[in-house]
Amino acid sequence: MENGTLAYIDYVAKVKDTGEVLEATREADAKNLGVFDPTERYSPRLVAVGEGWVLKGLDEALAKASVGEKLTVEVPPEKGFGVRDPSKVKLINEKKFGEKAHDLFVGAEVEVDGKVGTVRYMGSGRVQVDFNHRLAGKTIVYELEVVRTVTEPLEMAKALLGRRLFIPEDKLNLNIEGDIATIVLPEEAFLLEGLQFVKRAVSSDLFKFLKALKAVRFIEEYKSPEAEKPKEASHPAGAEPQEAAPPTEKA
Amino acid sequence: MENGTLAYIDYVAKVKDTGEVLEATREADAKNLGVFDPTERYSPRLVAVGEGWVLKGLDEALAKASVGEKLTVEVPPEKGFGVRDPSKVKLINEKKFGEKAHDLFVGAEVEVDGKVGTVRYMGSGRVQVDFNHRLAGKTIVYELEVVRTVTEPLEMAKALLGRRLFIPEDKLNLNIEGDIATIVLPEEAFLLEGLQFVKRAVSSDLFKFLKALKAVRFIEEYKSPEAEKPKEASHPAGAEPQEAAPPTEKA
């Protein structure tokens, strides 16, 4: 697949030497491998070939793969989570942990001076903490399938939008007319944290992958509280007076 | 003027007993009275009669005033900044201010436990701080003129929008078609702090004062970086570049 291709891939990712399952995109795989998480939404993962959305080694393999292909990709540390850096393993005096020193155990995750590490060894009043990434030095194996590429502009736009804006697709009103993409946001999105940055990032993605696009338009519509009420006018004439009407409604 | 009327008023507001000028909406008045501030935009103030946008006493006077009328309004403390509450005057030990105690002086504004007050007296290691509003107990005098009311829906909408969104009017693209108001925000507004809350408040204002309105639609448009590049193709071959002419002046 060419660089810049949008594709959906399914895969199981494992640590080569331990067989630990890191990720599975298919529900059946997750269940078979005993890593099923009911809060997870299992579906093929969107990737943009060569864009660095995934580990470098995986990105390179995708560039050589074709749609429908099933392949196994081995990603060595230097193209994955990095090699282990021995200088990131530190001996720390137990006193530094204060009262928390009593709760330490080998394997515990600790934060020291803003850095997260794992306790490897304890003794003689000192604690060995490894600040390398948990997967540094590990080779990652992907058993993957390129499900399909996304080439239709509207579907591309939806896929890109869904990646940034975590709103169910059926609530997202997106269409492309001529060279303008219009996105009507649902009211539940209006107060999302960082919404304005998401809009800018989505626009930037759309312009990158849909070269013909000239503008991305976001629409937010507020409805009149009056318009949203059930229509009183449909009550038969002579109906009871509308009690408890807020003062602003007095004519 | 009826409650709910939108009107522009010009005024000079003074403290009755000292003559201190608090506010002037006309540039000429500000200059004559020696309170001119070049960073201020002098123009009549938008008010909504009876909506509590101004001091209660002023609001009540506006309800009885007519367009074009010039009047003097005296607002007593109980309909203005409140009466003075003697229990809000506290004696505080100097030590409470720590090192800052050395910088205190009578008249200084200080913050104590999150409340702002004014130092009234200092001595014997104690500081008397008045936590009443600076204008509590004062009668405020307005010399005012009701310039005009705003009744045309589009102008009403623009006035309401301008009150919440501090963007020059010529940059605000606002129109009303049928029962839908559409506001196209300029790019410089996209990252305004609290933008989403401003939108909600503006919508709420519009629905309140323009009863016929059913929806308020905000549009934010991002332009493709490609589309914004100068179009090389449109320059006639061999023509001189159009120098220094601001784009709006090209006929």
What does this structure look like?
- The structure is a homodimer of 251-residue chains.
- Chain A has 251 residues and is of the alpha+beta class.
- Chain A has three domains: 1-82 and 135-150, Roll (Chitinase A, domain 3); 86-130, Thrombin, subunit H, CATH 2.40.10.330; 152-232, Alpha-Beta Plaits (2-Layer Sandwich), CATH 3.30.70.2210.
- Helix content of chain A is 18%, strand content 31%.
- In chain A, the strands form three sheets. In chain A, strands 1, 2, 3, 4 and 9 form a five-stranded antiparallel beta sheet that branches. In chain A, strands 5-8-7-6 form a four-stranded antiparallel beta sheet, with no helix packed on it.
- In chain A, a hairpin with a 2-residue loop joins strand 10 (173-177) and strand 11.
- In chain A, helix 3 runs antiparallel to helix 4 (195-209).
- The radius of gyration of chain A is 26 Å and the shape is globular.
- Strand 12 (215-223) of chain A pairs antiparallel with strand 12 (215-223) of chain B.
